[in-house]
Design goal:
- The chain is 38% helix and 17% strand.
- By secondary structure, it is an alpha/beta fold.
- The longest helix is centred in the middle third of the chain and has 16 residues.
- The strands form 2 sheets. It has an 8-stranded mixed beta sheet. Strands 2-3 form a two-stranded antiparallel ribbon.
- It has 10 helices and 10 strands.
- The chain has one domain: pyruvate-formate lyase- activating enzyme (Alpha-Beta Horseshoe).
- β7, α7 and β8 form a beta-alpha-beta unit.
């Protein structure tokens, strides 16, 4: 029997072929001015009995499922004892399970102790998807992220020290034409000082219903970057990255003008060469009609 998801349902691109279990609805923060994902949902925790029933149904339909994504917006906000019960139910129902992942906010991570995070890791939680967005404090404040460069770095360190992998996203274009260098340089400073396993870049696209809020919270005139300016942001970012541990880098999200893939710092020269080719007009960019957040 298929699961009855509470829509809309979002998941990272890499979770597209994996089983999704909704353990919360909406996002517990839901104030980021660029994000329209859960604006029509009130945050709530799904009753454990309902979650367990979904797990039983899923196990009958997909008994060989190896990877599970816990939705909605930030499942890590759940109390640790509830997450432990959910992880135990998944391990029991899906004998081939090898990975459980979820979205997480910096505060989700910081609000759990090292012991709690380590316990979750030991019981099957492997990967956290973290929206970094920017490493510049000015930009984080303007987009109402509810985090600072320091708190994001602390969250990344805390997850890493507990053995959890972190997949972080940065949104190119958040600084607009005025603050783009500060946006990128702050992000470089963050990523060069905190460990991360996977890094992806997205390109800013505002849903029509978010434009007024975004511009109002930004606090000054905001001018979107065009594709060439976004490529220059990407170039500056990759040029400056020297992460403390090897990072798997991707810009293959559908929002991006140019798809890139490689490992940093190993493939820095290759990635920069691809960016140079695009800036020179020798590599076509993704058409606008094929882009989406």
């Amino acid at each position: 029997m298929p699961l009855n998801y509470h829509m809309p349902l979002y998941r990272p691109p890499s979770e597209g072929d994996n089983l999704i279990i909704q353990v919360t609805l909406g996002c517990s923060f839901n104030q980021c001015s660029f994000c329209a994902m859960y604006r029509d949902k009130d945050y709530s925790q799904r009753p454990l009995a309902v979650v367990f029933d979904d797990i039983r149904k899923a196990a009958k339909a997909w008994p060989n499922a190896r990877r599970v994504f816990l939705a909605d917006g930030d499942a890590l906000v759940l109390p640790t004892d509830q997450l432990m019960q959910i992880l135990d139910a998944l391990q029991t129902a899906l004998p081939q399970l090898s990975r459980v992942s979820c979205y997480a906010t910096p505060s989700n991570i910081l609000n759990k102790s090292h012991e709690e995070l380590s316990l979750l890791k030991a019981n099957g939680l492997n990967l956290l998807y973290l929206g970094i967005e920017s490493g510049a404090n000015l930009i984080l404040k303007k987009i109402t992220k509810g985090a600072s460069q320091k708190s994001i770095a602390q969250a990344m360190d805390k997850a890493f020290n507990a053995g959890l992998k972190v997949s972080g996203t940065v949104i190119l274009g958040l600084g607009g034409k005025t603050h783009w260098q500060e946006h990128i340089d702050g992000t470089i400073a963050l990523l060069n000082n905190a460990p991360i396993t996977y890094l992806s870049t997205l390109q800013l696209h505002l849903e029509p219903n978010m434009i007024e809020e975004f511009e109002r919270k930004y606090g000054e005139a905001f001018v979107l970057q065009d594709d060439k300016a976004i490529l220059l942001e990407q170039q500056r970012l990759i040029s400056g990255l020297n992460p403390p541990k090897a990072v798997i880098f991707r810009s293959n999200h559908a929002s991006n003008a140019l798809a890139l893939a490689g490992n940093l710092p190993r493939d820095k020269d290759k990635l920069l060469a691809q960016l140079h080719a695009a800036l020179d007009g020798n590599t076509p960019l993704r058409p606008w009609y094929m882009r989406a957040m």
